[in-house]
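As a warm-up, study this chain.
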Amino acid sequence: MVKEKLKIGEISKPRFEFRSFGQDFKEASKKMQELSAPVPDKVKERQSDEIYIVSKTNDINNTKIRNGKMDIKTFVQTVDGLEQWNPLMKAKFPISKKTLVKEVFPAFNVEMPTLDKKEYTLKEFLQMIKKHPDLQAVKVHKHRFGYMVNDTICEVANVLINGAKVISINSESTELEDIKKTLSDIGLIGVENINYLQVIKRVIGMIDKPLAN
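Now compare it with the structure written out below.
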């Protein structure tokens, strides 16, 4: 079987991911930068402001809003400690009642609020989230630096979660062995794999568990 050649910044078939969060990944970050192949200018450094919607009753659907669009990914499987996520839904605001009823709130696994309009703006949707006892909107700012190591898409990011700063480091690919080699090469073997849902819940106190360091 021919291995897929990943191109950073472009869509591929579903990837496996390693990602961790903590306060200090200086040595691994330095090694990642040293080993990186050249990457396009558009992914060398990026910043974004996003809103994640976290649910007390859901850990398998990752919902974020960026540039007026909602993006939901769903957890597929874990293989050798690496997680695979697939796109579940994409929608632009204003968002229809039908989409909220059939796709969005079921993904949160919570009680459906009363919906009496045909569509909702982003502001109206966030007001619903604020009122819901099992949901919370969390502001996330990402300052990301992209790399390519062993044909895996890598990143180091300064992340602000409701203003609390943490460092993220990751490697993702369609090929498990390439990620494992990368983790070994940059010194991340044994470090906990933590996805965005988990880190946000830990930072805001929804989960009582520390980060990787």
